[in-house]
Amino acid sequence: MAGHIKSCKNNSVITMKKEFSREWGKSKQPRKQRKYSYNAPKNIKSKFLNAHLSKELAKKHKIKSIRVRKGDKVEIMRGQFRKKTGKIEKISLKSSKVYVNGIEMVKKDGTKILYPIHASNIRITELNLDDKKRTEKLNKKQKSD
To answer: Who contacts 32 (Cβ-Cβ below 8 Å, separation ≥6)?
Structure first.
């Protein structure tokens, strides 16, 4: 974020850099929390896309949650599509939403579109382990414990 200038008694100028992490969560007001989450940098927005693992996966990999990925099989826990399962087809980092295959909404003109679901409202039942870095990360966690 941009630097802010603060003047002192002896007319010297001190530049203070405002960091996002210090600003995060300072306010309890919902409007400011929404603002922070909307304007968050990509590395922090990525953390909003973490979802809980099923009991079997959590026991196997010894972790409670992991970032969702395209190809993961998930079960929806909240909302009108509760208890339905499917594979993740698309992830929107900007809106922090996940789109699951088979979970569709019908528009007024009759066309079907994928229904956006927040990552906190899903549970991962099967991981997509095509990525080597993801498998390394899971194995590293198991070895450390």
So the answer is: 26
Torsional sign, CA 48, 54, 59, 61: negative
Model pLDDT for residues 44-94, shown as the tens digit of each residue: 999 999 999 999 999 999 999 999 999 999 999 999 999 999 999 999 999
- Of the CA atoms within 13 Å of residue 13, those in its CB half-sphere come to 5
Half-sphere exposure of 125 (CA within 13 A, CB side): 12
Confidence category of residue 21, pLDDT binned at 50, 70, 90: low
What Rg, from alpha-carbon coordinates, does the chain have? 20
Q: What is the pTM of this model?
A: 0.77
Distance CA 118, CA 101 (A): 14
Q: Specify the pairing of strand 13-17 against strand 65-67.
A: unpaired
Give every CB contact of residue 114 below 8 A, 6+ residues apart in sequence. 89, 90, 99, 100, 101, 103, 104, 105
Which residue segments constitute the domains of the chain, with CATH numbers given? 1-40 (no CATH), 53-144 (2.30.30.30)
Residue 57 CB coordination number (10 Å): 19
